[in-house]
Amino acid sequence: MYQFFHLSALIYYSNPIFFAARLPQIHQNWKTKHTGQLSFLTNFMTFSECGVRTFTSIQENAPFDLAVGSVLVLLTNGVVCAQVVTYGSTPEPPHEKLVSDAKAD
C-alpha cells in the first residue's frame, strides 16, 4: 500500500511538470504562427506513442491518475502535432549583410 501511494503521487505530480513544459510551447507556436524547427515526424511519433499508452492504460484498468494523465498528454501532443501540420515550417528571413562583408564587395 505504501509503495502504491508513492507511485500514484509520482504519476500525479508528473502531469503538472509536463504541462509546465508543453503549454508555453503551444502558446508560443500559436502566437508566432509557426513552429520553428519542430519536426513533423518526431511529433507524430510522440503523439502515436501517447495514443498507444492511453489505449493500454484504459485496456489494463490502470489507476485513474495514470489514465487521465495519458489522455491529457495525448491531447497536448495532438495540439503540437496539429500546429506542425497547420503552420508548417516557415523559411527564415534572409540575413542582412554584415558591414565587413559590404566592405569586401
Can you put this structure into words, describing what you see?
With about 100 residues, this protein is an all-alpha fold. The protein has a domain at about 40-85. It contains four helices and no strands. Helix 1 (about 1-30) packs parallel to helix 3 and helix 2 (about 40-60) runs antiparallel to helix 3 (about 65-85). The longest helix is centred in the N-terminal third of the chain and has 31 residues, at about 1-30. The protein is elongated, with a radius of gyration of 20 Å. The protein starts with a helix and ends with a helix.
Keywords:
MannP-dilichol_defect-1, repeat, 105 residues, membrane, 0% strand, mainly alpha
Quick structural overview:
This protein has 105 residues and is mainly alpha-helical. 77% of the residues lie in helices and 0% in strands.
The radius of gyration is 20 Å
Average per-residue pLDDT, rounded, comes to 80
Q: What is the H/E string? A: HHHH
Main β sheet profile: none
Topology:
Layout (H helix, E strand, L loop, with lengths): L1 H31 L7 H20 L4 H24 L11 H6 L1
